[in-house]
Amino acid sequence: MGETRYLGLLDVIALHAAVMERTGRAPAPLRSEALLESAIMRPRTAAHYEGADLVRQCVLLVVGIAQAQAFLDGNKRTAFAAADVFLRLNGLAFSGDALDLAQQLERIAMRSGSLEEATADVEEWLRGRVARL
Question: What is the tens place of the pLDDT at every residue in 60-116?
């Protein structure tokens, strides 16, 4: 496959608006552009410094957006949408149950251990639920 395609700040803001409108809500105000930018840069950083594959990059994107709480509402929904788009842009698709993925995001938010452990758990879980398009 070719070069990895990434989501930019405006892409994620647009995804947020679309997700919120689809669920019958107005897009929430952006609390911090810097937090969102940091979250969406995590996959690129991991690819460059760790050689992270697409699944790892996707998990870092999801966790970053969900944890950044850059929007006043809809952060986990936005993270879910960003994961779906990121995978599809790169020739992959989530093949699991959407509710299961939402529950994984909830587990990250409610984790009892470290964020690194929670991220590793989600990465392991996601690896079995991604397929080539």
Answer: 999 999 999 999 999 999 999 999 999 999 999 999 998 998 888 888 877 778 889
DSSP 129: T
**CATH number, domain at 55?**
1.20.120.1870
Distance between CA atoms of 59 and 63, rounded to whole angstroms? Answer: 6
Whether the model clears a pTM of 0.90, i.e. scores above it, the answer is: yes
Residue 105 CB neighbours (<10 A) = 21
Total count of domains within the chain: 1
Helix H or strand E segment including 31: none
| Distances in whole angstroms, Cα of residue 84 to Cα of each of 55, 59, 66, 80 | 11, 11, 14, 6
Give the DSSP H or E segment for 50.
Answer: helix 33-50
User: Cα dist. 17→54, 71, 118 in Å?
Assistant: 25, 11, 27
Looking at the domain assignment, is residue 42 inside a domain? yes
